[in-house]
């Protein structure tokens, strides 16, 4: 059985496109890892985010969540954020877990503070707001706004 030149050309094109996607994916994974600095933020709840989740400021991606851990002393979730070194953050900046909409994905949003001193490698963002549960909001709304414990 002999292959036609068109089949060989199509197969070669498929291999080239596949190799291009692999190269592009590897480039995207390594992009932004040079020159980053890590800071931490402690949240009551990190529902909806995980490693690789975007960190944004004013809607622009400035980093990613590089790890999540539980602090056994405070029982709070500690997120490690890998931020672009070209974006210095004032020490009084705040971090909020936001969503892209009702059914959208979650991301960490940074609101810069006004201090003149910037967070350094290993610094911590103290002013945080965790994820808001849509189900909890609905229960509160249906219950007439009462948040009394049973």
UniProtKB/TrEMBL annotation:
Residues in Mce/MlaD domain copies: 37-113
Pfam families according to UniProt: MlaD (PF02470)
Organism superkingdom: Bacteria
PANTHER family on file: INTERMEMBRANE PHOSPHOLIPID TRANSPORT SYSTEM BINDING PROTEIN MLAD, INTERMEMBRANE PHOSPHOLIPID TRANSPORT SYSTEM BINDING PROTEIN MLAD-RELATED
The name this protein goes by in its record: Outer membrane lipid asymmetry maintenance protein MlaD
Organism of origin: Pseudoroseicyclus tamaricis
Lineage, highest ranks first: Bacteria, Pseudomonadati, Pseudomonadota, Alphaproteobacteria, Rhodobacterales
